[in-house]
Amino acid sequence: MKTKSMSMRAMSLTVIYLLLLGFGMTFLVGCGNGTSTVGTVDKAQDPSKVKNNQNATQPVQGVSATVPASANLSVTDLEAALVDDKGLQLIDVREAREFAAGHIKMALNRPLGDLDKNLARISKDKDIVLVDLNGTRAESAWHVLVEKGYDQNKVKVLTGGMLQWRGIVSSAGSNSSPDPNNSEPKNSVNAEAPKPEVQEMVGGC
Prior knowledge:
Layout: H1 2-32, H2 50-57, E1 72-73, H3 75-83, E2 89-92, H4 96-101, E3 108-109, E4 128-131, H5 136-147, E5 155-158, H6 161-165
Parallel strand pairs: 1-5, 2-3, 2-4, 4-5
C-alpha cells in the first residue's frame, strides 16, 4: 500500500512537472517573437509609435523621394550660420538618449517618431536645420515637414549629420567623385576637426 502511494505521488509530480514545462515553453516561444530592444537605438520602437514611424519615412506625395541638393547644408555652412546668429531652428530628430549623449548647442530634440506631434513647437517662419546621426532620419523628417506645409526652401538637412559634425566622416562623402590629381590614398579620411557639443547627464541603465 505504501509503495502504491509513493508511486501515485511520483506520477502526480511527473504530471505537474510536465504541465509546468509546457507552460514554460509556451511562454518562452511567445517572448521569442518579440524584438529585443537591448543595445539598440534606431531599431527599438515603442509599439504605439510604429504607425508614426512608418508614416514618417514614407515618401511625400508630389515630392521627390530624395531630398533636393538645395536642401543639403554642410557642416561649414551651419557653423558659419551659427556664428552669424541667423536665427536657425536646429531640430535634432534622434532619440532622447542619443541627443543627451551629445548635440549641437541650441538644438531642440524632436524625435522622428514623435515629429508630427510636435509641429506646433517648430516655427514655419524660421529656417530649419534637421540633424541626426548620419542624415538618414533627417531626410525622412524633411519629407514629414514638407508634407505638413513647411516651405521646402526653408527646411535643410545637415549633410553627414552628427558624424560629420564630430569629424568622424569626411565632408567629401561618398557622393563626390574622386579627384584624379589627388595623390592621397583612397582610404584616407579628410575629416574635419570636431565641433563643440553639449552633453547631458543620462540616468537609468
